[in-house]
Design brief:
Shape: elongated
Largest sheet: 5 strands, mixed
Distance between the termini: 61 Å
Mean pLDDT: 84
Low-confidence stretches: 20-24
Oligomer: single chain
Helix content: 25-40%
Amino acid sequence: MNRKTALIAITGTLAALGILAALVGPSGGNVKSVGRIAQATDLYSKDDIDDAFNAVESEFASGFKGCTLDELRYDDEVESKFLDEMLGHGQTGEGDLIVVLSEFTTDWRAADEGFSPNDRYEGWQWILTRPSRDAPWKVVDWGY
């Protein structure tokens, strides 16, 4: 095999590997640099809120292809705004419900997930429940 043929073979192999890596790449959302805005409230401690954030990040990373999670937020304002929704879900002392707000951006691959490509979503809600204070949070719904 001469030098030119070897160079063409190596270039072709690298190009094929690059295409394969792009197609097989990450299948879920990007949660590598999420800003977290949280403070303890009358209902939930900082640890409770961090556990809820972790559950949201896990859900986002397992789906939401082509999306980058930029921010998660929970504070007194969020708590009071969604208290009626919490009560509407039957959360009256038996178990907990928390609503976390998020912001994320999308790229061209997000269209496969039903999102507008190259867009920003703000105020996206994540509803999480847990049957008791000792149980882990579970994401039960999301959206506007």
